[in-house]
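Researcher: I need the complex structure. Ligand is LLP. Inputs:
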Amino acid sequence: MHFFNYKGNELYAEDLPVRLLAEKYGTPLYIYSYKTLLRHFRAYDEAYKSYPHVVCYAVKANTSRAVLRLLAKNGGGADIVSGGELFRAMNAGISPKKIVYAGVGKTEHEIRYALKAGIMMFNVESEQELLEIDRVASDMKVRAPIALRINPNIDPKTHPYISTGMKKNKFGIPIQNAIENYRLAAGLKNIEVVGIHKHIGSQITEVSPFVDALKRILVLLDELNSRQFNIRYLDIGGGLGIPYLDEKPPRPSELARNLLTLINKRKITLVMEPGRSIVGNAGILVTKTLYLKKGTGKNFIIVDAGMNDLMRPSLYDAYHHIIPVVKNRRAYIKADIVGPICESGDFLAKDRKIQNVNQGEYLSVMSAGAYGISMSSNYNSRPTAAEVMVNGKRHSIIRERGTYEDLIKDERVPSYLR
Ligand code: LLP
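Model: Output:
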């Protein structure tokens, strides 16, 4: 069950017709369902309730303040990858004690900021990073809590751009170097070893890669603890996929059952970092049909949302359902649904079977809540899309549509050009 459904001919977001929202707020428009977000977050919280755990939502999936605030209010933590994400998470009221910090390129400035905030732990991705955190912590006269992010060399069977736990990927410390790096960490005065972390990729639709990776991590965990390490946190990362087309990913509860069986009676606090599976299907992107054009042997539906608003189709060849906001009985055609950007790679769908649309009609791009607005840009000087949250019959703007002034507000012209 989800909260974007047709009632009669009209697509609804919870209890509101999407068409009315599009008319009121304009397009392109991201719409999120409060109830879906909450349900997805709780599904994780519920699934792991037999263990001490923290659900650290992966902020990068959708950084909007209202989304972060909703999760904060329900006890959520955050998985961050930059100082900017730390700022956003704390600004939304997420306790630093529930924040984990990954990423292969943390700067000194970011490390300082996170140490000052007092985060739960750094997920360290290299030996040099470990030494740098120790140096900064020593300078600040504090101890830095860390986990090592271990690359277990597991194929997550997903798109190569979003696989992260194979030896060819830049992420984490190779599992065969783990013990040596933990030893090094234990010898550093301003480092406190508290955890172990892995994250093997995104949009994973099977249980087995998660299970295989965890098995490898648990062998390491037991070995570490038998060598007098005191690993308190086991961070299993994120990566659970969602249905975009006809994928049948396991539910969080099914994944949890499999993982908890492996973890068994180990005394550990579990940390998980879901992003997409919380926000992905809680959001849609509504766009208006501008023009219809017949090319040579091709139909084009030209809409007002482009690759700058939703980059996933262009970047990963990702599939998103695209459906009419008001259903019709017209014949199906095959068309490329394209945006206004001056790039041939600017498409939302290619050779898509879709019921014929008329100029001015709205389409809804489904499953757009994750890595949609957060990866958007102002390319072609297009202002950022607006975002609305729907809760029952209530609708609230959570990001005003960008303006032309916004586009130039940070830019300066050298005095000799004035
Ligand atoms: N933890 C870490 C360390 C990560 O790097 C990521 C995602 C997550 C958690 C959350 O993964 P999720 O649960 O959302 O799968 N832009 C791509 C996805 C990139 C994922 C990057 N890392 C896309 O649109 O498919």
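Model: Summary of the prediction. The longest strand covers residues 283-295.
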